[in-house]
């Protein structure tokens, strides 16, 4: 009597060759649109920096002991990370699995959903870590003094970018239509963007807004970047821990939801 062989079990959930394969595909594909992606991810935060830095800077010279251009320049790094991670993850992922059927093609290879989501988030985070440094370089042109702590900014931006990329992938798996992304942009991303301490300190906000800001991942990214430039403090362990927990939570939720989405 013939026996049916048991399905092969993978030695571990995240297989390095599978992750590498997906990442290589993303890098090769990025070569076809890197100009537009780099332009949109760096120019928009730079415009915010110039507009607020020199607009409000003419009215407000100092904020928390810093020149306003320096205050905004360090905070806008988090804005660049947000724009270059959450939006590519939301729209890019939705297009890939809904219209291009890229995920179906990848799943036909020895790659599972966990590896696809992880590789996508890692690649977007790597880009965000690079793009996030652009406002810092612009701020240096306008008077921000270089500091050794700036070398840590790409790593801070990478952690934040991974969390926001995973959040974007999660949203793309939850929403049934790409038009529904406007709800998330208006009710979640925009409020978090405005109450993150980027353009003004949260100390002047009402108490409830200050409490809400402390559960805003973007706020913790702003604080870490600012302290990397002007000096770390004991609170930075809390900022870093919150960002890591946010990234891990969004990563696991994105994997779980995307697995259900692809099965459906």
Q: Can you describe this structure in just a few lines?
A:
The protein contains 12 helices and 2 strands; from the N terminus they run H-H-E-E-H-H-H-H-H-H-H-H-H-H.
Explain what you see.
The chain is globular. It has 264 residues and is an all-alpha fold. α3 (68-83) runs antiparallel to α7 (134-141) and α11 runs antiparallel to α12. Strands 1-2 form a two-stranded antiparallel ribbon. The protein has helices spanning 16-30, 34-55, 68-83, 86-98, 102-107, 113-131, 134-141, 153-174, 181-194, 207-213, 217-230, 236-263, and strands at 62-63, 66-67. Mean pLDDT is 85; it is low at 1-12.
Overall 3D geometry? Answer: globular
User: What is the β-strand count?
Assistant: 2
Task: Determine the mean pLDDT.
Answer: 85
Helix content: 55-70%
Please tally the helical runs, counting DSSP H or I stretches of 4 or more residues. 12
Main sheet properties = 2 strands, antiparallel
Order the strands across the largest sheet as they lie in space.
1-2
| Uncertain regions spanning at least 5 consecutive residues | 1-12
SSE pattern: HHEEHHHHHHHHHH
C-alpha-based Rg, rounded:
20 Å
Strand fraction band? Answer: under 5%
Q: What does the oligomeric state look like here?
A: single chain
Q: Kindly, what is the distance between the CA atoms of the first and last residues, rounded to a whole number of angstroms?
A: 36 Å
Class based on secondary structure composition and strand pairing: mainly alpha
